[in-house]
Amino acid sequence: MKRYDVVVVGGGFAGIGSALASARSGAKTLIVDKSNCFGGASVNSLVNPFMPFCTKIGEEYLLLSQGIFLEIHKKLKERGSIKGMGFLEEDLKFLINDMMIDADVDIMFNSYLSSVENVNGKIKSVTFATKGGQVTVEGDYFIDATGDAMLASLAGVPTVLGREGDNLCQPMTLCFRVGNVDVERFMKGRDNLSKAYTKAFNEGKFINPREDILVFKTPIPNVLNFNTTRVVKFSPIDAVEVTQAEIIARKQVKEIFDFMKEHACGFENAFLMMTAHEIGVRESRQIVGDYVLTEKDCRNFTIFEDAITACNYDIDIHNPEGSGTSHYYFPEGKFYTIPYRSLIPKTVENMLVAGRCISSDHGAQASYRVMSTVCNIGEAAGTAIGLAVKNKSSVREIDVKKLQTVLKSNGAFIGL
Ligand SMILES: Cc1cc2nc3c(=O)[nH]c(=O)nc-3n(C[C@H](O)[C@H](O)[C@H](O)COP(=O)(O)OP(=O)(O)OC[C@H]3O[C@@H](n4cnc5c(N)ncnc54)[C@H](O)[C@@H]3O)c2cc1C
């Protein structure tokens, strides 16, 4: 049986930040993902682009996501793989493979976490379902970067689902890509298309409850990325319900594509290139950690003493019940921070959680869930675990001031 200092489960932006930071701090690190590449939702669910991650203070722009995320961003830019905020996920896959290999991270793809051995609040090993059967890996420390808090949940850590009261999560969305679009004409015709959409929507012509068409340009000529399907009230952690959601979302893709063929400018020769491999999940389980980050903390621009990163992406809530999307935009120059305690799960001493499933309420999650910030959270988790490995301490016992100093000296912005 293989044994590591640190095992990271999940290779999305949170897992990427986690594994790179952990390995760079000298810990022997393994990262495992159920898919065949890095990128998480950006590759599995075609989530694109990066959302803005800066704020203006006086005449200066302050980048709130620096560290490993900025390193990735710069490297993609140097390769010509970013246009605007859109990026080529195929290039991301190459880049992250190289970065992991350079950092001496061991990688195991196509492996689905299926069980966890937790002995008195300490995880001893994790087991994956693979083509070769069950594979068990031992570790001293673990990072749950599965997005769904799957490792934490299997370890018996308390979790919550969705918003308080009714446990509904933000909608799931199957993104899709359309090729051979005359993008310039499409953009010029957006207003008319929106009017036609609203009319058809009000006449009940769509099964999709989304109020408008959400679309982003990509760096690929003549290709648009649509983030516009919406499936509500299905549980993102129940296989049967997720399957139903995938089927409904695919019907929505067809109805909106057919509608645009008829009504959108520049769509004369357009074709449906691809739908995502997996329906996108904005929100699912959150761990209950040592601190529950709240929407109120975000709106109060809270700077925590144990801050590990900062964020100002808007509180962007796609209605969990149907139509409508609400936004709270942070004023210029304002941001909030994320405390280290929100990464520490209750009841387990040798694991941290990184990504969209840290300890928070529904409103806070609607903001920090973006790829730039989850990568920062991952970097903090990997760095913290690196310190724990050196001191053989529990994740609660690490020196948070030291963590902050190391993060800053590695180029991260933590809001302090
Ligand atoms: C439709 C949609 C649109 C969005 N739009 C944007 C946007 O425009 N810009 C933006 O920045 N953010 C956007 N987001 C949010 C953002 O994409 C996610 O919140 C973010 O990518 C989450 O990163 P993560 O690393 O926490 O999780 P993920 O990216 O989901 O990564 C988790 C990884 O864990 C792996 N995994 C899960 N379970 C297991 C298991 N049991 N065994 C092994 N591996 C496992 C998965 O394969 C995956 O690679 C959007 C999200 C959605 C769903």
Give your account of this protein's structure.
By secondary structure, this protein is an alpha+beta fold. It folds into 2 domains: 284 residues, FAD/NAD(P)-binding domain (3-Layer(bba) Sandwich), CATH 3.50.50.60; 110 residues, no CATH class. Helix content is 32%, strand content 24%. The chain contains 12 helices and 23 strands. The strands form 8 sheets. Strands 1, 2, 7, 8, 9, 10 and 23 form a 7-stranded mixed beta sheet that branches. A 4-stranded antiparallel beta sheet has the order 14-15-13-16, covered by helices on one side. A two-stranded antiparallel sheet has the order 3-4. A hairpin with a 6-residue loop joins strand 14 and strand 15. It is globular and about 65 Å long. The N and C termini lie far apart (42 Å). The site of flavin-adenine dinucleotide (FAD) has 38 residues, from helix 1, helix 2, strand 8, strand 17 and helix 11. Flavin-adenine dinucleotide binds next to helix 1, helix 2, strand 8, strand 17 and helix 11.
Inertia-based shape: globular
**Nearest-integer average pLDDT:** 97
Give Rg in angstroms: 21 Å
Our measurement of the CA-to-CA distance between the termini, rounded to an integer number of angstroms, reads 42 Å
- Tell me the domain tally: 2
Bound molecules: flavin-adenine dinucleotide
Main beta sheet, described?
7 strands, mixed
Number of helices, where a helix is a run of at least 4 consecutive DSSP H or I residues: 12
Number of extended strands:
23
Stretches where pLDDT is under 50 for at least 5 consecutive residues are: none
